Every structure is written in structure tokens, then in C-alpha cells.
Model the fold of this input.
Amino acid sequence: MIDFEEELKQFEPIKEVEEAEDAIHNTDITDLTDILREMVEKSERK
Done:
């Protein structure tokens, strides 16, 4: 039987995955929430 705890101890993340995660987290991406917030702010100013 596979000892998952032992397998996890041997796990080393792939460098490309870590780099991709950093790039995703460090990128300022406009999402739906940002767009809606901007629309509400514009409507309140009028």
C-alpha cells in the first residue's frame, strides 16, 4: 500500500509551477468586482 505521508515528504514542487504562481499573484488583473466597483463610483459621482 502507498504511504501518502512518506510520498509527500519526498515531494518537490516543479520550478515552472512556482514561477507561474508568482507571476499570477503579482499581476494586477481587473476582474468583474473591479469593474462593478468602478461603475458604482461613477454613478455616485453623477
In short: The CA atoms of residues 15 and 21 lie 10 Å apart. The chain has a mean pLDDT of 87.
